[in-house]
Amino acid sequence: MTARLSGLDQARGVALVAMASYHFIFDLELFGLVPSGTALSPYMRGYAIAIAGSFLFLSGLSMVLAHGVGRRWPAFWRRWGILVAAAAAVSVTTYFAFGAQFVFWGILHIMAAASLVGIVLLGRVPAWGLAVLGVLTLAAGVWLRLPALEHPIFWITGAQAARPVTVDYLPILPWIGPYLLGMAWAQFARDLGRPTMPQKICGGALGVGLALLGRNSLAFYLIHQPVLLALVGGYVWLLDYAP
Question: I need a surface site. Which of 51, 65, 68, 242 has the fewest CB within 10 A?
Fold first, then answer.
């Protein structure tokens, strides 16, 4: 990992900590330790949107940095396969945990889909074109509603009228938008000969810890929620059995 990329690792680390804090609130609500609806309040919903958007923006930026002006196909397919496997694991696990509200299209699913789009557009669409596409997809996610796409098989598009009832849902529209904007940012910076990220966000032990999280983002994502659930559930169990 070069010094130029350490800032990116730390940015991912910050996003991971923010994500874990949101999921902690969700778990507190799940066990009845905070009022019902807390995790879906306007403030918390905005917080979750900002976190997910930052992950996708950084993923798009990473696509450009990882491949440069070409395509490293073996590395791409290896990472894509890991993403797909992890997304499938999340879907299966949440199906057993939440039933019909399972995660059929969450953050890992949209990252895998966006990666396919990104690798196709990489080097073929200029930075300004990626920026325009990013803005258009964001707008389409807000305004586009097609009656022909109401069937559940099309819910991954996000163009249907009603939001599915699921614990996590990031459809292609508008969520591919931040990914494309991340790609655009990286290409603009590269074209101008500028760094895409600061060398580091912070120093010391905090900076080292955030960079370590960022370098292991997928592993942290997969294990943090079971750990949080075990901690909160264990606390509730102790409360129930405390003298």
Answer: 242
- Confidence category of residue 242, pLDDT binned at 50, 70, 90: low
Domain extents in the chain: 3-241
3-state SS assignment for residue 185: helix
d(CA 39, CA 168): 12
**Cα–Cα distance measured from residue 72 to residue 100, given in angstroms and rounded to the nearest whole number:** 38
Confirm if 106 and 164 have CB atoms less than 8 A apart: no
Contact by Cβ (8 Å): 59, 52: no
Instruction: Provide the pLDDT for residue 240.
Output: 80
Closest CA to 25 of 7, 8, 4, 47: 47
What is the SS3 assignment for 169? strand
Task: Write down the residue that tokens 């798009």 correspond to.
Answer: 60
Q: Is the pTM of this model over 0.85?
A: yes
Helix (H/G/I), strand (E/B), else coil: 196: coil
For residues 60 and 115, what is the distance between their CA atoms, to the nearest angstrom?
8
One-letter amino acid for residue 180 of the chain: L
State the Cα–Cα distance between residues 184 and 60, nearest whole angstrom.
8
